[in-house]
Design a protein that fits this description.
The chain is α/β, with parallel strands linked by helices and 451 residues long. Helix content is 49%, strand content 15%. Helix 6 links the parallel strand 3 and strand 4. It is globular and about 60 Å long. The chain binds NADPH dihydro-nicotinamide-adenine-dinucleotide phosphate (NDP) and (2Z)-2-iminopentanedioic acid (2IT).
Length: 451
């Protein structure tokens, strides 16, 4: 075990030196390496320096960075940067979303792509890991501006993607509207109806039922599984949810369907707490139809709701918590606040929303903690089901997709739970998810030779 720890520490130092100024990537790599010592001790072929397995796994197979020029409605030209990191294709075509947000840089895309490798492995569905995006900020832009940006972005990206190569989807700032514009441009440039090149498409033209709901629904189902192991259920519990985008909205929806009461939502300006529980129809109207702010929800909801500018939802006491906005949005102080408020479970709808210290505080307090790699895998899992439907020119019913999603989330929970136990860390879903995902990818890489 000591040898394994030394080897992992040497790997960490080497990877950080080789990838300077990428703090999110360092964080994501470190979080995985910190949990691998037991599997290195049990399976020395993973640790063998001569095979350089982890060195290969942490180096993307391909990184594409490109210029994205586009014209705004007044005729002014803007230049953004586009990215696609094709991280690992040992298990299938690169698969992962596109993020449009001003904070996007190569380190952010690499952290997301690295996480995606293990998450996708956990689904068991034959998809590799990738991620992409741009520092473009869609907020405040007209539909026409977003369309011109997407068309310019795809004019370069189309060379690199394909149903058997690399299959992007949505993430922050990329939803159904953007996927539509991207798909249209891909189709026009290539003169191919290649439905499986993107997922998250509209249901009328190759999209899967339940894909918009899948990440949020899956995160709630994962929480239900974690509570179930402890003899509990969601029924009657209060919940805090952060964010008010795709993942947050459908987390709220599934919580309500299963008898829990979500009290909050948020955006980058602050949060809303609603004593009667979130009115989902009003929130969807504000966010999905009007593309507005959560403060507008509070203004229209009446006396039960108030908007807290600049605050974080974690200060509202609740039984369960769903960080569903962005990375590092739940820090050590927030974790202490949640524990003091009696939280029982935390399920990560977002990617890496909880800082490492916060994870430790929650786990030490006995809170069931579901890491994003496992808890938010429902979105990419239904993307893989969309690829299957596209390959077979089929459109499955919403019921069928939802049943498959539920079965996949149960199976991810079971494998993560079982792996944690097998490696001497019962109840530690971080260790379970990292090792279970790692084993699948590592075995495929070893079998496929030095690639
Ligand atoms: P959306 O763009 O639909 O919503 C993002 C939400 O998070 C908004 O409420 C946004 O507020 C808030 N947010 C984004 N960046 C920040 C920031 N820097 N600080 C504070 N708030 C912020 O994205 P999604 O709901 O799709 O994604 C949310 C999270 O879930 C991300 O971590 C994503 O990687 C992850 N995820 C998404 C999946 C999917 O299928 N879409 C699948 C798995 C994980 P504002 O509008 O003010 O910026
Ligand atoms: O982080 C994620 O898993 C996603 N943004 C979804 C990726 C996908 O290909 O559906």
């Amino acid at each position: 075990m000591k040898d394994s720890k030394d080897r992992l520490e040497a790997l960490r130092v080497g990877i950080e030196r080789r990838n300077p100024a990428q703090p999110e990537f360092h964080q994501a790599v470190r979080e995985v390496l910190d949990t691998l010592a037991p599997v290195f001790a049990a399976r020395p072929e993973y640790a063998d320096p001569a095979a350089a397995l982890v060195e290969r796994l942490t180096e993307p197979e391909r990184q594409i960075v490109f210029r994205v020029p586009w014209q705004d409605d007044r005729g002014r030209v803007h230049v953004n940067r586009g990215y696609r990191v094709e991280f690992n294709s040992a298990l299938g075509p690169y698969k992962g979303g596109l993020r449009f947000h001003p904070s996007v840089d190569i380190g952010v895309v690499k952290f997301l792509g690295f996480e995606q490798i293990f998450k996708n492995a956990l689904t068991g569905l034959g998809i590799g890991g990738g991620k992409g995006g741009s520092d473009f900020d869609p907020r405040g832009r007209s539909d026409a501006e977003v369309m011109r940006f997407c068309q310019s972005f795809m004019t370069e990206l189309h060379r690199h993607i394909g149903e058997h190569t690399d299959v992007p989807a949505g993430d922050i700032g990329v939803g159904g509207r953007e996927i539509g514009y991207l798909f249209g441009q891909y189709r026009r440039i290539t003169n191919r109806w290649e439905a499986g090149v993107l997922t998250g498409k509209g249901q009328g033209w190759g999209g899967s039922a339940i894909r918009p709901q899948a990440t949020g629904y899956g995160s709630v189902l994962f929480a239900a599984e974690m509570l179930g192991v402890r003899g509990g259920s969601l029924d009657g519990l209060t919940a805090v949810v952060s964010g008010s985008g795709n993942v947050a909205l459908y987390t709220v929806e599934k919580l309500q369907q299963l008898g829990a009461n979500p009290l909050t939502c948020s955006d980058s300006h602050g949060y809303v707490v609603d004593d009667k529980g979130i009115d989902l129809a009003l929130l969807k109207q504000v966010k999905e139809v009007e593309r507005g702010r959560v403060s507008e929800y509070a203004a229209r909801r009446g006396s039960s709701a108030r908007f807290v500018p600049g605050g974080r939802v974690w200060e509202v006491p609740a039984d369960i918590a769903f960080p569903s906005a962005t990375q590092n949005e739940l820090d050590a102080q927030d974790a202490r606040t949640l524990v003091a408020g009696g939280v029982k479970a935390v399920s990560e709808g977002a990617n890496m929303p909880t800082t490492p210290e916060a994870v430790r505080i929650l786990q030490e307090a006995g809170v069931a903690f579901g890491p994003g790699k496992a808890a938010n895998a429902g979105g990419v899992a239904v993307s893989a089901l969309e690829m299957s439907q596209n390959a077979g020119r089929a459109a499955w019913s919403a019921q069928r997709v939802e049943d498959e999603l539920a079965a996949i989330m149960r199976s991810i929970h079971a494998v993560v739970h079982e792996t944690a136990e097998r490696y001497g860390a019962p109840g530690d879903y971080v260790t379970g998810a990292n090792i279970a995902g790692f084993e699948r990818v590592a075995d495929a890489m070893l079998a496929q030779g030095v690639i």
